[in-house]
């Protein structure tokens, strides 16, 4: 496993504002991602690689850059810098191992251990499935709902808000307009749905969500029972970063959209194998 920073590169190989710190598991890459796998093998701490977005699945780009699937098509190239390299070695399956992995649970047998792992994996897959469901519904609405976007105004607005960025030229804006129009349209649709359902954000709801995420982050590194004051201090610093603040807001928005769609759309559930599921998101 390699933990590091992913950043999107523009046509001139300059870093964009799309960046995210997360982990990549080399052994989890598919056969069609062999070119990227070969680049990662032997990568040293602090070293970087660059690769074309076409080399990997769209779902991985979404995960690595922390962006929505609907925005993946606008990504052409990515740079990854290794920040931490973790070598995973097999451990003996016993009570000591169970306690290291789940210190707050009284797990004594391998069967109980595997049941706990299954519960955690199920929760994670549920989250991913819910996120994909929201994005697919919004994508379908973007395709099916016909309304005109004032493209001339959109071009002027993008130019004005990026007038201090020499990389955002008229040619770049013109080239990206199809993706920008789709993103702008999806934002209008989402905002309208949320407004019609009385959704509003408060600082309190953002803080509560951020504390929940921070606690989960501590626990993922084996730190359980962290003092509430410590978590609150970390959250304050965390939310000072604009990208982190936006990430929490996006989570709350997606949770509300999921609730609305679940209550208003007839869902036909279909059970698929893991490989079939992966193929759905390519």
How would you portray this structure in words?
- By secondary structure, this protein is an alpha+beta fold.
- It contains 10 helices and 4 strands, in the order ββαβαβαααααααα.
- It has helices at 34-40, 58-65, 95-101, 110-144, 151-161, 170-196, 203-220, 228-240, 242-264, 274-280; strands at residues 2-9, 15-24, 48-52, 77-85.
- The longest helix has 35 residues, at 110-144.
- The two termini are 22 Å apart.
Give the tags.
alpha+beta, globular, 2 domains, 282 residues, 4-stranded antiparallel sheet
Summarize the structure.
By secondary structure, the chain is an alpha+beta fold.
Distance between the termini: 22 Å
In total, the number of domains comes to 2
Radius of gyration: 21 Å
**Largest sheet entry:** 4 strands, antiparallel
- Helical fraction: 55-70%
Gross morphology: globular
Strand order of the largest sheet: 2-1-4-3
Class per helix and strand makeup: alpha+beta
- Beta-strand residue fraction: 5-15%
Mean of pLDDT: 87
Q: Number of DSSP helices?
A: 10
